[in-house]
Write a structure and sequence with these properties.
By secondary structure, the chain is α/β, with parallel strands linked by helices. 41% of the residues lie in helices and 14% in strands. Helix 5 crosses helix 12.
């Protein structure tokens, strides 16, 4: 009797065989004691190499799914009975703490490959097809050589000197940030930078002020440290500084491209914010997450470049310029908190993985990052123009785009009453991923609309997706 295995195509043959055999064993279709065909016979039946069969058998034997009997063959191993752990978290002494974490909402979580829609307007995602794979592969090979030549010690918590230097030079050139190598701390994404700064500045009950609407993961993070988060309203010039309460110790803002509405903070408002923070003795976190992509108007200075008193912590990320999966970000820290944050970083994870650090340092130093940004800038600019044209055209009866000059998302506010949750559900049925704007509001009255990311959706797909949105809106009357 032949073993039922189906091989499709000529790619990942070992992976296909491995997954099918393991699934058959775990599901019980191949019971304990069943003898598998010899590698030579199975190779002939499936039309693949004997080595592929042997390697798969070896891997499954190593994982205790199979066992080999000398002179007899390969057999399915008896699987240990699964231990059912019946204790509930409600029975633990730390129940209240666990429940508080379990109850936290999830925001901006990207779908898995299996759960993704054909036309995705999710924010924070980039066009993977534009990523310079060959350049990155070459830089990764360089990184492996650097690691091979090291002594095997743990690295510096603040990051590799080569990458800190590359970051300092890059942001001085592209954003006018005033910093030296020693001011840079390399992090696992911008989210870790926010976490580290919050750890050293907040305490239970302490006040943190942030824009409302704003970035939910930052708000939830500050709250997880016990801080009392105050949502400060924004207008067309940015955060309304006069509403920042007394006693605030940390202020979180996105001045170059307000998240999620998109407008930049005006120069008078930036000066007022710096003065208010100095008056309070507070630190400002400037989250400059995607301002490399600017489409019109003169570039604005970073808030950090205007800081004369050392009260701005500048946070950046490579998730938006390269790939989110890399999880590489950084913080440019004022002297007052630099050493404290480095200590917190060391206690948290010792240091960020050095392999991507070495690769990124070379990638930046050779000019690959700037070249990649310029290429993506042209692509994102075309997508932005396409969405704006549709918002000013056949979608104008329902939506009005908020003016924005940077980044790769925009907000579209409802001009008439629209059942946004229903529109989102109907859009899913036609493979269009849409996201509600009111999810980003905290203490301020939410405004109905859509949050449209255009980093992941292909340019030629935008009109198809927006046609489907228009059809849904027309059907709903």
């Amino acid at each position: 009797m032949e073993l039922h295995v189906v091989i499709n195509g000529r790619k990942d043959l070992a992976g296909q065989l491995y997954r099918q055999l393991r699934d058959a064993i775990e599901s019980g279709r191949l019971t304990a004691g069943t003898q598998l065909p010899p590698s030579r016979l199975l190779a002939e039946q499936l039309g693949i190499s004997r080595k592929t069969i042997s390697d798969t058998y070896t891997q499954l034997t190593y994982e205790n799914f199979l066992t080999g009997v000398i002179g007899k063959g390969t057999y399915v191993n008896a699987r240990p009975a699964k231990i059912v752990r019946k204790q509930s978290h409600s029975e633990l002494a730390s129940f209240e703490v666990i429940e508080r974490w379990r109850s936290l909402p999830t925001f901006l979580r990207h779908p898995t490959l299996e759960g993704s829609l054909r036309y995705e307007f999710i924010g924070g995602a980039t066009s993977k097809g534009q990523f310079p794979q060959d350049d990155w592969r070459r830089c990764t090979s360089h990184a492996l050589r650097q690691i091979a030549g090291s002594k095997g010690f743990y690295s510096l918590p603040e990051g590799l000197p080569a990458l800190r230097n590359a970051i300092a030079r890059h942001i001085a050139f592209s954003r006018g940030v005033n910093c030296q190598d020693e001011d840079v701390v390399v992090c696992n994404g911008a989210q870790q930078a926010l976490d580290l700064i919050s750890r050293v500045l907040t305490q239970p009950g302490g006040l943190v002020a942030m824009e409302d609407p704003g970035y939910p993961p930052a708000r939830l993070l500050f709250g997880s440290h016990g801080a009392t988060v105050v949502g400060v309203p924004v207008d067309e010039q940015g955060i309304q500084v006069e509403h920042i309460p007394d006693g605030t110790r940390l202020i979180y803002v996105t001045p170059s491209h307000q998240f999620p509405l998109g407008m930049p903070m005006s120069q008078p408002r930036r000066e007022a914010l710096l003065a208010r923070a100095y008056e309070l003795g507070a630190i400002i976190i400037e989250d400059d997450y995607d301002s490399e992509f600017r489409y019109e108007g003169r570039p604005t200075d970073s808030l950090q470049s205007l800081d004369q008193r050392g009260i701005v912590a500048y946070v950046g990320t490579f998730s938006k310029t390269l790939l989110p999966e890399l999880r590489l970000g950084y913080a440019i820290l004022p002297p007052a908190i630099l050493e404290a944050v480095i200590r917190a970083k060391q206690l948290t994870d010792l240091h960020t993985s050095t392999l991507p650090q070495w690769a990124l340092a070379k990638f930046i130093a050779e000019g690959c990052l700037l070249k990649h940004i310029r290429r993506c800038h042209t692509i994102y600019a075309g997508r932005r123009e396409r969405i704006l044209a549709r918002m000013a055209g056949d979608l104008s009866p329902w939506f009005e785009a908020v003016p924005t000059t940077a980044g790769f998302h925009m907000a579209a506010l409802c001009k008439v009453p629209v059942d946004i949750p229903l529109v989102i559900e109907l859009a899913k049925k036609v493979e269009v991923g849409l996201y509600a704007l009111d999810d980003f509001f905290y203490q301020q009255a939410p405004r109905a609309g859509l949050f449209l990311g255009f980093g992941a959706i292909e340019t030629l797909d935008i009109d198809i997706a927006l046609d489907r949105l228009r059809d849904i809106l027309q059907q709903l009357g």
